[in-house]
Amino acid sequence: MENFNFSILLLFGIGIFGGISGAWLFQRFNIPQVIGYIIIGLLIGETGLQVVKQSDILNLQSFNWFALGIIGFLVGGELKLEIFRKYAKQFTAILLGEGLGAFFLVGFPVFFIIFHITNSVSTALAAGIVLGAIASATDPASTINVLWEYRAKGVLTTALIATIALDDALAMALYGLGTSIAQILIGGPSQIFKEILNIIKELFGSILAGVLAGLLTNFIIKHLDANKEKILTIAIGILLLVIGFSDAAGLDVILATMSMGVTLINLSPKRSEELFSLIKNFSVPIYVMFFVLVGARLNISNMPLWLWAIIIVYVIGRSLGKIFGSYAGAKWAKADKNVQKYTGIGLFAQGGVAIGLSIMASHHLSGIKITETISLGDMIIFGVTATTLIVQIIGPPLVKLAIQRAGEINRNITKDDIIDSLKVNDVMEKNLILVKAEETISKILQLFSSYDFLSYPVVNDKNMLLGTITLDNLKEVLTDQECWDWLVAEDVLIPLENNTIKDTPLKDAFIIMRTLGVEQIPIVESITNPQPVGILDTRKINKFLEQELIIRTKDAA
């Protein structure tokens, strides 16, 4: 047991460190970081150095569910009801267009290839229907990762998030009906009505579980007076309960956690935003390891040429189906031009959902032989594994291309982004009032009563900054009015050892103010010329940041 624990810990270390290193390398060439994670997985997996075995990946299946659950929850946090009310027609049309487009453009070519090999219409139809259904699925993980990496925001980003969120349910419905029809065609038991009931149970059961978890989480964060760490711990605990229950009950993990996120963001938009931010930051190493394992599990060796032909037509048919299907749906719904043109190329990624469906299909269809050595089930799982490798490599760069062409990169701006872009000189109050060192307390108090400054710079006869005066450090003399006329500013000022200059980054100035515990601080020209040139006031800066955030995000909204 000790050796097992050590091997898993070592695997996590290799995966996370290697994944981050690969991401850094690929980002240097303007390639999305998720490609770096997957390539490192390929290098250490079955296709490469075989550091990670298939048995290791099977042992980490619970971790994969955890990662997918967090991804589903964060995707749900992007889906606000007012967006759906406004764009419901567009989202539905795009979803049906791209899903059914991929289904038919993969299903028909696969049918002809398998019929040419087997001369069996039923086997060829079964293969075409099942692979077509799996082709409709889109991987939310890598797509969302790219959107977050490039801070995308806009109508195309919204359409992509909504489509991949709903795509899971459509893929499961098509798969369930497809496998039932396939079993009928090849002479298996006819259980199509049972399969439909199972799909309904899985879809609505997953949604119900997620909604209940969202209600519970909302109740806790609304009534519990806890710090960020406790709220994060409680939310992760509830997420684990939902993921574990969904796995045990045969529900869809992504759909359940997505429903939890949707419920929470719509019940308490402002209160839950901080929680989503905490979980997003917490999940970074989980994402890295998840995508490394995606790469590690891909094994495409020893496949016959005819199977490579199916892989090629699958990738081409699925890609064309996504592009033209989403375009037709968006065109019919009169969506924005960018949504019409670029949604399709943002939906190429294929991952956990497709691989999971292929594993299920391999169990259902393992008894049907394509050749003497390969069954229909083997063909499906090998084909989907290989196509996942291909589209996971080309998918993320195309997501980046889509949002780049639509002009939506770096538009998901926060206050922190604005702070990082500013210097003190950009936001300081330049109409300052200086207090001479020999100024009496009586005159200084008149300044506090006449203006709304909380502190005043004290200067010498050469206008060089000596320190500041605040009401707080005048408390001791306020009750003794007799000293007001003879006590001067130099007697009560707070000396400043390190002056803040006007070229200081705003974020560094905020750190200085938090350290000093003040809301205002004087700003000087330079270190060699400590003449006061302004006052930094956190109240006024916050108002400025709110206005600037509205201006910078106006177009994206």
In short:
The chain has two domains: 6-412, Na+/H+ antiporter like fold (Up-down Bundle), CATH 1.20.1530.20; 417-553, Roll (CBS-domain), CATH 3.10.580.10.
Write up this protein.
The chain is mainly α. The chain has two domains: 6-412, Na+/H+ antiporter like fold (Up-down Bundle), CATH 1.20.1530; 417-553, CBS-domain. Helix content is 69%, strand content 5%. The chain contains 24 helices and seven strands. It has helices at 2-27, 33-44, 54-59, 61-76, 81-118, 121-135, 140-149, 155-185, 192-223, 228-249, 253-267, 269-282, 284-296, 305-332, 337-342, 352-364, 376-405, 415-420, 424-427, 441-450, 475-478, 489-492, 506-516, 538-553; strands spanning 435-436, 455-459, 465-470, 494-495, 500-501, 520-524, 532-537. The protein has a four-stranded mixed β-sheet. A three-stranded mixed β-sheet has the order 5-6-7. Strand 2 and strand 3 form a beta hairpin. Helix 4 crosses helix 10 (228-249) and helix 8 packs antiparallel against helix 9 (192-223). The relative contact order is 0.12. Residues 1-6 have low confidence and may be disordered.
